[in-house]
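Predict structure. Chain length: 506.
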Amino acid sequence: MFSSVFGTTVSGVTGSAVIVETDVSNGLPCLEIVGMPDTSVREAKHRVRSALKNSGFEIPSRRIVVNLAPAATHKEGTQLDLSIALGLLAACREIPQNGITEEYGFMGELALDGTIRPIPGVLAMVLALYELGLKGAVVPFENYKEAAFLEQFNVLAASNINEVVDFILGKKELARDSRLNSCLEKDPKRDLSYDHIKGHLAAKRALEIAAAGEHNLLIVGPPGAGKTVLAKSLPEIMPDLSYEESIVVTKIHSIAGLLPNGSGLLKTRPFRSPHHTVTMPAMIGGGTNPRPGEVTLAHRGVLFLDELGEFPSSIINALRQPLEDGVVNITRAKGTYTFPCKVLLVGAMNPCPCGFYGSDVKECTCTEHEIRKYISKINGPLLDRIDMCINVERLRPEELTDCSDYEPASTAKERVESSRQQQRKLLEGTGLLTNSEMGPKEVSTLVTLSSDARKLLFYAYKNMKLSVRVYYKVIKVAASIASLADCPRIEEEHVAEALSYRQKVF
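Prediction complete.
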């Protein structure tokens, strides 16, 4: 007796359909799973047997072989438990091999009592089944909201295997739960740090420009100057994720196991702040079975590296290619994995190891050699990939109580959203979303500079000894400044402000 049921697995940040083939024949009683399973998949035979027995089903003492096709694809995780169990029931003629088992995919981890437990990566797996052309999918109840946005794809939720069997037998409908109508996750409650920042007008201006064009930013200043608070406030003035961005970001966080059960599509931009002791696989991604790192988890959001000078040189150097290309390519014997990583990088660091070089608060105790060694980590290629650099100083006592310059985050966010709309109009048809993503071709064909702006730019290129990469970065930052001012072309003052963010900060 033979049956086949659709299941899924995850490879990198994408889902892959799996055909679960089950054969029951005469021979020594056993349940064998083949098709390149990992340990968690091989252990499914114990979970499936107990779950079926405790749910009232009898499994014959015969030779049972489960093949996970395509056999050349590595399978991992517990999401195949439900499809293996249904394949076994179909092969034993407990359920029919009908339109439901042929047109639906099934995923979920089985508890020993038959309960279907939530699993990571549901969104990626449902999208894989949708692209395959299936009619729908049955997912764990706790994961339903994550994939419910696919209105043209019949996503159904189940709490235990008996509900799924009754659905296949036509005894029960697995309707969409009315309590889970909204698929977009509401904004999480955050401390609004931007609204409480006193002073730092120049720094706030730089944050607004960075948010508008997704420009990488370096903040330098002594301890207590407010570098971390400024960086953490940046997502508050960035636009909410678009529908397409929400799908990708939610998929990444789901696969990484960071999406809370019952969550829908993420709406707010991610903010990741790894400690400077982070390992290379944790930052860039990797492992035996590659998983997304911090740079991918921050996709379409902010990657904040506090105490940038304390990060190992190997980590900083490894960030060059992801920042330039917007993707991380990891090659293993099992294959090549591509992780998206279009991030807004924000680095914060002291001007020296003790933090008080050039400060009038406390005398610096570092030697010249220590200072050079400290700042050498970010000089050169990485600094070329930083669009903007700013210095921040400790606030004066009178600035702590001055509210004359108060502006809520919502006002700055409106200006940023208006700038983004102009950028989308400018970049329509290119596949790009922000000014920072433009290459030399787009800069040359889409960006308009006044004659005075061009003269100033050429002068700066010659006298400031800018690299070609920095030359184009200045234009892109100037384009964001112009869009914030609602100006159709780049003027001289926009280039001048963009160049001010290329001054030495050490």
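Summary: The chain has 21 helices and 18 strands.
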